[in-house]
């Protein structure tokens, strides 16, 4: 079990009806079905992931967020909409955040922090686009087209009147280290936000 | 006898006779009826491993295996039914029947009407998907099957799986709906109407009484099949298969000659079909398609209709299918999600148009296998 998924589980109310955007191989949904008795669906576009979800008994729907969005889901039809490590990879993260809070009463998003000191140092010293364990791509082939820092995301939330219910900042192994809390935007690698309107 | 690998081997069709009257949706009653069916695999002790295969417009009960070792072709869905295939006959007891109104041995326009002693012909009542579900349930009772582990169908077959889930919710654990739609569009109905007009305007049709005249409306049926066939393929698959290939090296500059390969193919398909399919059945099948709309009884609201269902659903569509396009499947999936039903949906990238549901492309087989495998684990 990935550590970030464990953290998310703790925030999920038992019996919630849930939508998981970019649900991967269904690990999170399966875990939440087993431990939190959730119902709901995962959206995914990767064929192998879809097959893996089906094998796990996870309800998976082949749907592309970038082309189809979430327009097929009615307002407030889910208790919770989750998106792990994908916000930075969609075409318009700001609009998607709006959509997540339209179809869901609450949302949980996780994304890598581009403000981490190692990335800042890489750019400053090498003068080249940073790469790391969480961001192992070249600038031209990265799926992460809208990277941001925690500060950026929180400013977006202020602009959009999105209320941050809970926040957890961890390292790239999703460990909650005491020193990260001193300066999260510099020391944290992955953020997990629990938001609502 | 040596069965081919992955094949159910030699199969023998059977006939079930029902003496109880069947009241149809149109208000008419069939005094009794017969159903041709085949089964593959073994029914387990608690009859929990039964899978019903529903056929599409021109299908029949012969879904897998061969009747004789030297048959040229196996059953119509042999690519997906057999040992090691998605519908694995080592696990499942598979039942496939020819629907009433059909022309492969079940009671239909070309069988004898007991009231007149001659073929039913155009007197055969109009049949709907709901009627098929009813008659299939009677066959299930006869075979000792209370609940189907799954009901599986492509195209018109998928509509039957859907109707089952709505009409007899407690008897379906999984509904597998492939390349199908919750209802036909105006364009779909329009194509059906062209097919019907082609048949009924053939002078050999004789108002449907062509049996009396010892003839068949061959040209009409051929045209109907040709126009239908075009809707089963995609622009890309026709392009790949025929392109603009000529039958001869150069143009003959004649309008009556068969110039292009695609013409020759369509003529051949139409010709072959017209010799083996009954025109009245074709009319009935296209009407059953037109009328299909499980939401109709529920104020036109598909979500309300599907709320009744207890089954889990697997829906699959194919990107190049323009007869029942992915949009139609998504419409169904959205309604299922609104009704908070268990559903998985795969949109499979395949170049073969509507026919893709019969063609064993790797991703299709993978995802189909995965879903059926999940059902198999529940059964075991």
Tell me what the structure shows.
The complex is a heterodimer of chains A (197) and B (380). Chain A is α/β, with parallel strands linked by helices and 197 residues long. Helix content of chain A is 35%, strand content 23%. Chain A contains 8 helices and 7 strands. The longest helix of chain A has 11 residues, at 93-103. The radius of gyration of chain A is 16 Å and the shape is globular. Chain B is of the alpha/beta class and 380 residues long. Helix content of chain B is 34%, strand content 13%. Chain B is built from 10 helices and 10 strands. In chain B, strand 9 (312-318), helix 9 and strand 10 (343-348) form a beta-alpha-beta unit. Chain B is globular, with a radius of gyration of 21 Å. Chain A binds chain B through residues 17, 39, 41, 47, 50-51, 53-55, 57, 59-63, 72-74, 77, and chain B through 314, 330, 333-334, 337-338, 340, 342-347, 363, 366-367, 370-371, 373-374.
């Amino acid at each position: 079990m990935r550590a970030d998924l464990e953290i998310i589980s703790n925030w999920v109310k038992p019996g919630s009806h849930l939508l998981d955007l970019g649900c991967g191989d269904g690990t999170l949904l399966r875990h939440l079905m087993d431990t939190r008795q959730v119902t709901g669906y995962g959206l995914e576009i990767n064929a192998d992931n879809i097959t893996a979800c089906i094998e796990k008994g996870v309800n998976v729907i082949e749907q592309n967020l970038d082309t189809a969005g979430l327009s097929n889901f009615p307002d407030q039809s889910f208790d919770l909409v989750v998106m792990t490590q994908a916000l930075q990879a969609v075409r318009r993260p700001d609009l998607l955040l709006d959509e997540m809070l339209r179809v869901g009463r609450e949302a949980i998003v996780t994304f890598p922090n581009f403000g981490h000191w190692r990335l800042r140092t890489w750019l400053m010293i090498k003068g080249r686009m940073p790469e790391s364990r969480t961001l192992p791509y070249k600038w031209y082939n990265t799926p992460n087209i809208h990277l941001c820092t925690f500060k950026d995301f929180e400013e977006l939330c202020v602009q959009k009147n999105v209320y941050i219910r809970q926040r957890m900042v961890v390292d790239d192994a999703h460990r909650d280290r005491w020193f990260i809390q001193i300066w999260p935007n510099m020391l944290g690698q992955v953020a997990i936000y629990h938001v609502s309107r | 006898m040596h069965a081919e690998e992955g094949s159910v081997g030699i199969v023998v069709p059977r006939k079930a006779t029902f003496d109880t009257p069947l009241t149809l949706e149109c208000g008419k009653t069939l005094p009794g009826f017969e159903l041709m069916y085949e089964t593959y695999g073994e029914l387990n002790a608690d009859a929990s491993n039964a899978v019903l295969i529903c056929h599409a417009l021109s299908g029949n009960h012969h879904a897998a295996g061969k009747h004789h070792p030297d048959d040229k072709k196996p059953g119509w869905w042999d690519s997906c039914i057999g040992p090691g295939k998605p519908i694995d006959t080592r696990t499942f007891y598979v039942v496939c029947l020819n629907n009433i109104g059909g022309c492969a041995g079940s009671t239909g326009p070309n069988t004898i009407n007991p009231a007149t002693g001659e073929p039913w012909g155009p007197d055969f009542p109009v049949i709907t998907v709901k009627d098929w579900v009813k008659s299939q349930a009677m066959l299930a009772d006869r075979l000792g099957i209370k609940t189907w582990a799954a009901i599986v169908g492509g195209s018109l077959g998928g509509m039957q799986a859907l109707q089952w889930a709505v009409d007899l919710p407690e008897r379906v654990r999984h509904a597998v709906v492939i390349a199908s739609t919750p209802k036909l569009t105006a364009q779909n109905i329009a194509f059906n109407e062209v097919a019907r007009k082609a048949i009924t305007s053939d002078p050999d049709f004789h108002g449907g009484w062509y049996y009396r005249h010892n003839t068949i409306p061959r040209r009409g049926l051929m045209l109907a099949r040709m126009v239908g066939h075009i809707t089963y393929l995609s622009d890309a698959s026709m392009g790949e298969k025929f392109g603009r290939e000529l039958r001869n090296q150069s143009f003959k500059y004649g309008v009556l000659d068969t110039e292009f390969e695609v013409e020759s193919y369509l003529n051949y398909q139409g010709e072959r079909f017209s010799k083996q399919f009954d025109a009245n059945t074709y009319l009935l099948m296209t009407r059953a398609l037109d009328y299909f709309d499980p939401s109709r009884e529920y104020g036109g609201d598909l979500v309300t209709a599907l709320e009744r269902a207890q089954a889990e659903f697997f829906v699959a569509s194919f990107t190049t299918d323009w007869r029942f396009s992915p949009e139609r499947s998504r419409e169904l999936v959205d309604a299922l999600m609104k009704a908070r039903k268990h559903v998985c949906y795969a949109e499979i990238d395949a170049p073969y148009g509507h026919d893709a549901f019969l063609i064993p492309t790797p991703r299709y087989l993978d995802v189909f296998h995965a879903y059926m495998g999940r059902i198999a684990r529940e059964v075991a």
